[in-house]
Amino acid sequence: MIRSRIIATGSYAPPKVLTNFDLEKMVETSDEWIISRSGIRERRIAEKNTSTSDLGTQAALRALEMAGLAPEDLDFIITGTNSPDMFFPCTGCFIQAKIGAKKAAAFDVSAGCTSFIHALSLADKFIKEDPSRKVMVLGAEIMSKVTDWTDRGTCVLFGDGAGAIILAGEEGERGILSTHLHSDGALWELLYMPGGGSANPSSHETVDKGMHYIKMAGNQLFKVAVRALADVSQEALKYNRLKSQDIDIMIPHQANTRIIEAAAKLISFPMEKVFLNIEKYGNTSSATIPIAMDEVQREGKVKAGDLMLLCSFGTGVTWGSAVIRW
Ligand code: COA
Questions:
Q1: Non-local CB neighbours of 319 within 8 Å, separated by 6+ positions
Q2: Is the beta carbon of 10 within 6 A of some atom in ligand 1?
Q3: Does residue 253 have an active-site annotation?
Q4: Residue 115 CB–ligand 1 contact under 6 Å
Q5: Which of 52, 185, 205, 264 has its Cβ near the most Cβ atoms within 10 Å?
Q6: CATH number of 2-172
Q7: 173: CA distance to ligand 1 center in Å?
Q8: pLDDT tens across 114-166, in order?
Q9: Catalytic one among 90, 93, 113, 311?
């Protein structure tokens, strides 16, 4: 059986660190509140003249280096992002041009923080269609540029970064075993950015009202997120006839440690097997999972044949999972 195997990973986070103590000087908050409510200690912030594709490009180059591939070897570049360089063209096209992946077809996926899982699911299908393909999947974000730095309810949570993986067709048991995708558009008001689109085109008024910033009903979203992560993880286990104890490592979307702990508790999944790096990066939206995948790979926290469960949720509301034999 042909499967889509992850042959390389790469990630990049901008060097500038913003700590909870820095935030104490910007809004009425405290390191104690942020760490106890979210698990975040610090996040990375991109420089003013940097765009999302710049971060994606660095992650892409690192993945290509690990794979030993040239940019021209890529057939597809699928980028999950909620903070694109521009409305159009897509951020993937900028990444394609910056790395020189002349042969690749580049496009973006927009499904909130779950975008990376959606992109991964598409990549799997492209490879099943033609196993000779090499497909790059990215999650890349500069959330700091859509954050209202006077809103303590959101500005303490998000950060910037990018992750990339490369998939190739391979005979055998290793690779993507399943993906499951869901959404409930009726819940869109839990997290959205109202300004700049066709509903509220950019104007002095939209800018004056701060409509180009993230709006979030954190408390309500928290409950939806716990349920979504638990349900989609259980669905993935059931589909693959697996039990929690069969999974070697779970990489959940890193939005809030308390959400992850509550979801793990609901499905009796041991926290020792859950990978967390939210403390260092905050919520980098669609980049949290590929950054974590790169870290576990480079730090030797996964080995060939391990079973990995990815699960995510995000604006939309969207949620999804993937099970991978590493
Ligand atoms: N510092 C200090 N106090 C803060 C604060 C901050 N940064 N942000 C909010 N508060 C205050 C609130 O104003 C509120 O005060 P009040 O009781 O006087 O009204 C109090 O803390 C509790 O707020 P609440 O929103 O109920 O806290 P919470 O325990 O739900 O935690 C979040 C807030 C945002 C951390 C949490 O709801 C969350 O993580 N939600 C999900 C968000 C998410 O995952 N978004 C991304 C999806 S991809």
A1: 114, 182, 183, 228, 229, 231, 232, 311, 312, 313
A2: no
A3: yes
A4: no
A5: 52
A6: 3.40.47.10
A7: 43
A8: 999 999 999 999 999 999 999 999 999 999 999 999 999 999 999 999 999 99
A9: 113
